[in-house]
Design a protein that fits this description.
- This protein has helices at residues 28-34, 46-64, 91-112, 117-125, 144-150, 166-169, 196-209, 244-250, 263-266, 276-284, 292-296, 379-389, 395-401, and strands at residues 14-18, 23-26, 38-41, 77-80, 85-89, 163-164, 301-308, 311-318, 335-338, 343-346.
- Helix 1 runs antiparallel to helix 4 (117-125).
- It is built from 13 helices and 10 strands.
- The chain has a domain at 335-401.
- Helices cover 31% and strands 12% of the residues.
- The chain has a 3-stranded antiparallel β-sheet.
- The longest helix is centred in the first third of the chain and has 22 residues, at 91-112.
- The protein is an alpha+beta fold.
Length: 403
C-alpha cells in the first residue's frame, strides 16, 4: 500500500482571488508561476493571509538571496549544488557588490513581472519536506519518534497528553474543550472537521499566533516562558500591490534595513532544510534569528500529528519565547521607544486601539520628526524608500502601497 501524501508544492491549498474575482485554491508551484494573475490571498482570516504571505516571502527570500533572477549563484556566495544552500561567503566581494547584486535581482524580477524557474527548482529539491502527510519529514511537524525525544517522558504521544483540538487551532472557531463557542460557523459534531488544505493553512497560522495555554514544553536545561507566536506580539504593517505578484515583490526585502548584512543574514536555518533536532536546538537558545526567512517561519511549537481514521490528533510542545526588543530585522511592525529600558520595542495594538485608523498614527509609519528616539520607521517603509531612491519604484507606487 502506497504512503498517503499531500504535497504543498503540487497540491492546491492556498486560497487566492483571481483576475475574474473568483476564488481559487492553488499549489505553491501554481502560485509562484501565476502570481501576477491573482489579485490577493483569500484565506479564512486576514491574520491567516498575513501568516501565509510571510511563509511565501520566506521561500522567495531564501531563493533570491542565493540566486539572481537568471538562476545563477551570486559571485560572493558558494552554493552546494545538492542542497542549494550556501556553504561559504566572501565578505570582501560582498562589500564591493553584494547589496547592488541583490537590488538588481529585485529590479529584474519586478520588471519581468514574474518569478523565475529557480523558485520551482528549489521547491522541487525540497518537495519531500513540504508533504503534510510524510512519515519521515512531515511539513511543519516532527515525527512521533522526534516528538517523543523532545518532550518529557510523561508527555510522549503514547500518554495522550499535550494535545490541541483542531477546533482550537481553527481560529474561526478557536474553541477549547472547556469553553464552547456558541456562535461557531460549524455545528458541534463538525467543529473538528478540516480539509488537508485548510489544515496546512491553519498549521502555519497557529505557529505565528499561538497563545500560551499549552502545558507541554520541550525539554531544556533551563526553565523558559512559552512563546506566544512571533506575530502575536506585533502590530503588523506591510505593503500591497495591484496583484499578488506586486504584493510579494513590495514586501520582498532582499536587503534588510537597520541591520548589518553578513553570512547569518543570508544563510537561512529553515525548518524544512534542517533535521528537526538541529532546528529545535537553535530555537532553544532563545536567540532571534539573523535572517528574514527564518524569522518569517519561526516555530512557536513543536507539532506532531497522529492520524486516526482520517482525523488528526495534534500534539503540541512549547518552545522558548523570543525577545522582540530591538529586533530590527523584523520589517513588518511599528516601534515605540521604551524610556525606562532605553530601547525600542514593537508598539502593540490593544483592545482600546483596534478601531483607530492607520492615518491617525501616521508618525508611527512615516518619520516626520528629526529628534533622536522620537520615531523609528517600520523596516518595510525604509525598504520602500530605498527602492524609490534607487528609481526602482515610482513615488506614485510608493504612496499607494502601504497598508
Amino acid at each position: 500500500m502506497s504512503e498517503k501524501s499531500f504535497n504543498l508544492v503540487t497540491e492546491p491549498w492556498i486560497k487566492v482571488i483571481d483576475e475574474d474575482n473568483l476564488e481559487q485554491t492553488v499549489s505553491l508551484e501554481q502560485l509562484f508561476t501565476n502570481a501576477a494573475h491573482y489579485q490577493q490571498l483569500a484565506g479564512e482570516m486576514k491574520s491567516q493571509d498575513l501568516a501565509i504571505l510571510r511563509f511565501l516571502l520566506a521561500i522567495l527570500t531564501t531563493v533570491y538571496s542565493r540566486y539572481n533572477a537568471d538562476g545563477k549563484p551570486y559571485e560572493w556566495l558558494t552554493i552546494d549544488e545538492q542542497s542549494m544552500r550556501p556553504v561559504s561567503f566572501d565578505e570582501d566581494e560582498f562589500e564591493d557588490s553584494g547589496k547592488d547584486d541583490l537590488l538588481q535581482t529585485w529590479n529584474d524580477l519586478y520588471h519581468a513581472q514574474h518569478f523565475t524557474e529557480i523558485v520551482t527548482r528549489y521547491l522541487q529539491k525540497y518537495a519531500d519536506r513540504f508533504d503534510l502527510l510524510s512519515s519521515e519529514h512531515p511539513f511543519y511537524q516532527a515525527t512521533r519518534a522526534q516528538y517523543d525525544s523532545l518532550v518529557p517522558k510523561n508527555k510522549v504521544v503514547a500518554k495522550g497528553k499535550g494535545t490541541v483540538a483542531v477546533k482550537q487551532m481553527n481560529r474561526t472557531i478557536s474553541e477549547s474543550n472547556n469553553k464552547p463557542d456558541i456562535f461557531s460557523p460549524n455545528t458541534s459534531p463538525h467543529k473538528n472537521d478540516l480539509s488537508l488544505a485548510a489544515l496546512a493553512r491553519w498549521l502555519i497560522t497557529y505557529q505565528n499566533f499561538t497563545a500560551v495555554t499549552d502545558k507541554t514544553k520541550v525539554v531544556a536545561k533551563e526553565k523558559f516562558s512559552v512563546s506566544p507566536g512571533w506575530l502575536y506580539g506585533l502590530n503588523p504593517v506591510f505593503a500591497t500591490g495591484n496583484n499578488l505578484f506586486e504584493t510579494l515583490m513590495l514586501n520582498l526585502v532582499l536587503v534588510p534595513q537597520g541591520v548589518d548584512l553578513e553570512i547569518e543574514t543570508i544563510s537561512q536555518q529553515l525548518a524544512w532544510e534542517l533535521p528537526i533536532e538541529e532546528y529545535v536546538k537553535a530555537r532553544l537558545t532563545g536567540i532571534v534569528p539573523g535572517n528574514l526567512a527564518e524569522l518569517y517561519t519561526i516555530w512557536s511549537r513543536v507539532i506532531h500529528i497522529e492520524w486516526d481514521n482520517g482525523q488528526p490528533l495534534i500534539f503540541s510542545a512549547g518552545l522558548p519565547k523570543l525577545d522582540n526588543h530591538e529586533a530590527f530585522l523584523e520589517p513588518m511592525t511599528i516601534w515605540k521607544f521604551n524610556k525606562k529600558d532605553k530601547e525600542w520595542q514593537p508598539n502593540l495594538r490593544w483592545l482600546n486601539s483596534l478601531g483607530k485608523a492607520m492615518w491617525r498614527n501616521f508618525g508611527q509609519y512615516i518619520s516626520v520628526q528629526q529628534a533622536e528616539n522620537s520615531q523609528r520607521e517600520p523596516g518595510i517603509v525604509t525598504w520602500l524608500h530605498l527602492l524609490q531612491s534607487k528609481k526602482q519604484l515610482q513615488m506614485r507606487q510608493l504612496c499607494a502601497s502601504l497598508q
